[in-house]
Amino acid sequence: MARTAKTRKTPAKSKSAAKDADFALHSLQDAFEKAKSFDASEDQMMEFYRQMLLIRRFEEKAGQLYGLGLIGGFCHLYIGQEAVAIGLQSALDNDVDSVITGYRDHGHMLAYGIDPKVIMAELTGRQAGISKGKGGSMHMFSTEHKFYGGHGIVGAQVALGGGLALAHQYNEDGGLCLAYFGDGAANQGQVYETMNMASLWKLPIVFVIENNQYAMGTSTARSSAETEFHRRGTAFRIPGMDVNGMDVLEVRAAAEIAFKRVREGNGPVLMELNTYRYRGHSMSDPAKYRTREEVQDVREHKDPIEGLKKALVEQGKSEDDLKAIDKDIRKIVAEAADFAENSPEPEAGELYTDVLVEEY
After folding, report:
1. Three-state SS sequence of the chain
2. Model's pTM, two decimal places?
3. Mean pLDDT score of the chain, rounded to an integer?
4. What is the pLDDT of residue 359?
5. pLDDT tens profile 161-177
């Protein structure tokens, strides 16, 4: 007798699956497209300009100190990406929100308003540094400011960011975690494990991909099957946003929409900030994988600081006013470098501190 195929029973649709027709992953992008520029006051625009310029001049000085041998190890500069950190972190509630990032971290700390002197002292390995000179460029840290690094393992900060978000939820403190990572780290498995958990538990976390196009030295076109990184959360029902990371007002506008959704208990958001780093991956990278003409074209037509400067001039700010700000910033950075160079190195006994979380 011929065998008859068994009829496979179709399981009942889950409650969430039944809502698929109403689930729009593009809803945040739709809202963003209606108002892509933050309606900043003149004072806010001037502060954005000052903060971005501080990061730019600070990083330029850090590059000089590295060349002089005063900064050791690896040093990853943030030049070109200033609008991302300033646009996003200016929208945070510094009393409750937390930030975690990878090893290109100087700009994020400066965006927090942390004293440039203690950041430069950390870069040069001095006792006065924010991590007592033991973290250096890649491992900045400040629990006081709820800034949790500065992480050298690619993508590791994302999983830790999930833990920070869980703590916010558990403590019911109203805070969210801003977890930065790059286009290279976006291909790490732990990123997607974290996305799955964050979506499942509706954790208050904003995943931020700083897409500077080249990761450590390989273009996104050669390294990623899906180069539209804001789509990467689709499998986990995480809405994505595609943002011009070279425009601080656009970044801030996107932040307003994303943070509001997360604070209302709707779970995570994934933001792709399309940006560009002018220097190599680190100070030791000659960046031969791209042309000088490409870099110069971005500098001339998409620079975040020059773009905001143009907007300020159009609103009536004089070139002299803006030059005065630059002069003041250069003085602050020079003082930070002098402070770092004249600060003592850590005592040998510091090797044995901050190893375990306990009294010893």
Report:
1. CCCCCCCCCCCCCCHHHHCHHHCCCCHHHHHHHHCCCCCCCHHHHHHHHHHHHHHHHHHHHHHHHHHCCCCCCCCCCCCCCHHHHHHHHCCCCCCCCEEECCCCCHHHHHHCCCCHHHHHHHHCCCCCCCCCCCCCCCCCCECCCCECCCCCCCCHHHHHHHHHHHHHHHHCCCCCEEEEEECCHHHCHHHHHHHHHHHHCCCCEEEEEEECCCCCCCCHHHHCCCCCHHHCCHHHCCCEEEEECCCHHHHHHHHHHHHHHHHCCCCCEEEEEECCCCCCCCCCCCCCCCCHHHHHHHHHHHCHHHHHHHHHHHCCCCHHHHHHHHHHHHHHHHHHHHHHHCCCCCCHHHHHCCCCCCCC
2. 0.91
3. 92
4. 64
5. 999 999 999 999 999 99
